[in-house]
Specification:
Helix content is 34%, strand content 22%. It is of the alpha/beta class and 348 residues long. The protein has an eight-stranded mixed beta sheet with strand order 7-8-9-6-10-11-12-13. A five-stranded parallel beta sheet has the order 2-1-3-4-5, sandwiched between helices. Strand 4, helix 6 and strand 5 form a beta-alpha-beta unit. 41% of the residues are buried.
Length: 348
């Protein structure tokens, strides 16, 4: 399939799915972006978004796996060398295997390129601090690949809590589940297992709302009956002075993709967002607050595509020379909390 044919086909899809991304400003050339690694499951979806945006031009993908390269080339994205990628791209998206994120992110930043790095970004806190330090020193953007940072339901719920419309938030519950086959379990073979790979997506909004937890207690289990001891069922409890947050992730739920939610409980009511991928928000208040009336209200949102918002923000920040919405300091707090939830760092 040629690029022209792919764009024509994808444009029709975009009209019905909300896939279309940021468009270039008049008289501004597209920003050149490439992929260092393409094996992560989020990579193809991000490539679709970038292909459907006049704001971006994909220069190619680097990957040592011929099968991965063939899948991208089917969509009109050519395989190129790492040297060519570093020469041609203004921004590089790291979409490699999780174990390679740190080393690939470091290559990108040391080459003086803005970085979009797939989650989770590093295996240790020191590695993440190093990436942040390089980005700061070189005045580069480093954007995390947490897929729900631009989820309208999640952001509406966080606004309600931040504005104080729930009263005192005393409890937060968040889950992200999935069902994977035996052949995919090796992808979770690192500390924390599913908490590290999937749980990070719900830890992100919880910690950005509540800040650094005073204590993190983890329950990491292999419950699926396999012999590999990979963590496939995980819960973390985040303790704050007046709030408790419970985050869970399992990859053995038969319909796990439907069981993804965020609940916020406060002294004036509750906000529920579920499911997260096609968000619907239910607000239940004791008294009127802000934009909402007492009683139960359901809020529907336009169809949400995971990756559009983050690349709109990234393009805007590059063109305006302004920082991203989530600060590096907040990113560090989130990553520390994730590593504590995975037992990599002591929870206290």
């Amino acid at each position: 399939m040629t690029r022209r044919e792919f764009l024509h086909t994808s444009a029709a899809l975009a009209a019905t799915t909300g896939l279309a991304g940021a468009q270039a400003e008049p008289d501004q050339p597209p920003i050149r972006i490439g992929f260092l690694g393409g094996s992560h499951s989020h990579g193809p979806g991000k490539a679709d978004v970038l292909f459907n945006s006049d704001a971006w031009e994909i220069v190619g993908v680097v990957d040592s796996n011929p099968e991965v390269l063939a899948n991208y080339e089917k969509e009109g994205i050519k395989g190129i060398s790492q040297l060519e990628l570093l020469e041609k791209a203004d921004v590089i998206a790291v979409e490699s295997d999780v174990a390679d994120h740190y080393q690939h992110g470091k290559i990108v930043l040391e080459a003086g390129k803005h970085l979009h790095i797939e989650k989770p970004p590093t295996m240790t806190l020191d590695e993440f601090r190093e990436l942040l330090a390089i980005a700061k020193s070189e005045k580069l953007l480093m954007q995390m690949g947490y897929m729900w940072r631009f989820n309208p339901g999640v952001n509406a719920a966080l606004k309600i809590a931040r504005e104080g419309w729930l009263g005192q938030v005393y409890m937060v519950k968040a889950e992200i589940n999935k069902l994977i086959g035996e052949g995919s379990r090796a992808e979770l073979a690192f500390p924390g297992g599913t908490m590290f790979e999937l749980g990070c997506h719900v830890i992100d909004p919880v910690v950005r709302l509540l800040g650094r937890p005073e204590k993190v207690t983890t329950h990491l289990k292999s419950s699926g009956g396999f012999d590999d001891q990979i963590v496939d069922n995980a819960i973390a409890v985040f303790d704050y002075s007046s709030t408790t947050a419970i985050v869970g992730s399992a990859v053995i739920h038969p319909r796990g993709h439907l069981y993804r939610h965020l609940y916020l409980y406060g002294t004036n009511g509750t906000v529920r967002v579920e499911p997260l991928d096609m968000p619907r928000m239910t607000v239940e208040l004791k008294e009127d607050a802000g934009d909402y009336k007492r009683g139960i209200q359901t809020v529907e949102f336009d169809r949400y595509h995971r990756y559009v918002g983050e690349f709109e923000e990234l393009a805007s920040s590059i063109r305006s020379n302004k920082p991203l919405g989530v600060t590096p300091e907040s990113d560090l707090i989130v990553h520390e909390a994730l590593l504590r939830a995975c037992g990599v760092i002591n929870g206290s």
